[in-house]
Amino acid sequence: MAVTRGMRYLREHGVPFVEHRYEHRVKGAAYAAEALGLDPAMVAKTLVAELSGSFALALVPGDRELSLRGLARAAGAPSASLAAERDAQRLTGYQIGGISPFGSRNELPVYAVADWLERDRIALNGGARGVILELASADLQRVLRVTPIP
Q: What is the pLDDT of residue 1?
């Protein structure tokens, strides 16, 4: 199978990961978790958000919804909204349903739900539809300088 930009990014940063592949039929971390037999609380969706004129990535467990108010507070922004799909694709260089925080076209600040970051192992999109990468939460935080969303 093809190596994604996300995989190359992690390898370049010396981050070990486990690659999971599944047949992508529906976008979303909850579907990916079900298809792979993983805990939905472990697998995060990568969302692109607009924070009062700038953009950021938000990592949210598949069994939860993003609190836009919480994201805005964590970012020190007056407001937050989900970015339009075309902006998300343009900024990251990834297709919707395959957006990864690793190897994004533009380096965007990364925010993640705080209790998800407390897990030993986490999983998220690897840069293509049907590709989930599992890694240590500590490695994610080290390479991306993640800001927790309370």
A: 63
| Residue 134 Cα distances to 7, 25, 53, 88, angstroms | 11, 20, 32, 23
The tokens for 31 are 């579907």
Low-confidence ranges of the chain (pLDDT < 70): 1
Taking CA 64 as the corner, what is the angle to CA 59 and CA 69, rounded to the nearest 5 degrees?
Answer: 70
**Single pTM value for the model:** 0.94
The secondary structure element, H or E, covering residue 72 is: helix 68-75
Domain boundaries, the chain: 5-149
- Condensed to tens digits (0 to 9), the pLDDT of residues 130-139 reads 999 999 999 9
Do the beta carbons of residue 113 and residue 45 sit within 8 Å? Answer: no
Please give the pLDDT value at position 107: 93
- Superfamily in which the 5-149 domain is placed by CATH: YbaK/aminoacyl-tRNA synthetase-associated domain (3.90.960.10)
CA angle 61, 37, 2 (to 5 degrees): 85
